[in-house]
Amino acid sequence: MSAETDTQTTAVYRVTGMTCGHCEGAVTSEIAALPGVTSVKAVAASGEVTVVSAAPLADEDVRAAVDEAGYEFAGQV
Hints:
By secondary structure, this protein is an alpha+beta fold. It has two helices and five strands. Strands 1, 2, 3, 4 and 5 form a five-stranded antiparallel β-sheet that branches. 25% of the residues are buried.
C-alpha cells in the first residue's frame, strides 16, 4: 500500500531475515541511500520497512538495496 501526501510517497515493504537493531540499521542505511528517499523506518519484529520518498520507488531498486544489506525483499505490504 502506498499513500501520497503533498509531494511525498510512503510505502511499506516486507523484509525477511531481520532479527535485531543491527539488521534494522543495515536495511535502513541501504534503502536511505536510494535517490529521493527522505525517511526509512525498519522494524525487525514485524519485518516491515516504511519508506518515505519524493516519488514512488521501483521495487527492483528497493530489492537491490535489501539484497545489498543481506536480507530478503518480500514485496510491498
